[in-house]
Specification:
This protein is an all-alpha fold and about 290 residues long. It has 10 helices and no strands. The radius of gyration is 19 Å and the shape is globular.
Amino acid sequence: MAKANALETTARVGYAARGIVHMLVGGLAVLAAIGGGGETGGSKNALASLLGEPFGKTLLAVIALGLLAFSIWREVEALTDADNRGTSGKGLAIRGAHVISGVIYLGLAVYAAGLAFGWATGGGQGDGGAQGWSAWLLAQPVGRWLLGLVGLGVIGGGLAFLGRAWKGDVTKHLHYLPHQRGWVVPLGRAGFAARGVVFLIIGGFLIVAAWQAQSSEARGLGGALRTVQEQPYGWVLLGLVAAGLFAFGVFGLVQAVYRRIDAPDMDDAKDAAGDAKRAAERGVRRMG
């Protein structure tokens, strides 16, 4: 039970850290929309903005630990099916997305730690990461098709977020008091809607990059926000999307407190990881 509780704590710390990052991204973009000196950057830019703040490096170190915790939880959640997604096509797709999410947040944790301890520097437009892995993918056999499929997958995720925001149960995994529903549900809907819009834009740029075989066309979160800002009445649109991202960040803090987390036993998690590794090795041997 103690091991399971340790995993539950890991998950809650992780949700809080992810929420803080989204609050930073959304808050800075809101300031940019209203001319308050913010910026339309991605997660790395938002983390780098803390360097100039009092105790900024300490905050970055704490956030890095939280993001590492979220990365660990994402992998455990996916491998052990802690949320009971099942093995249907949809369930496996969600679990696969969580595996990828865990890798992404691991990279973000390393970056935050690098800022805290001086291994990394801030700056840039924030699309370098998306363009880097897009270039690597384009260099592989049938790379354009693979990048296009990734783009379609991201668009699919965006549509799923929008569907959840419109009529889905955003509080499915939460346990909260009835009187809290009046603000928890709108918060979740606003957050998922904003993420849906951002995913659609990112996915669209990935498909363009695949079509033109140009990784420079790929965009990350920062590029998606800048695209919104460049539209007619862009400051209004950016403000709405940014406010939604901030809401998703606050919703992350709600998840940290109220989410129902069915943490598996650590031994079960290790067994699941071992099974996944052996299955991957068998697949590699078959291809060889």
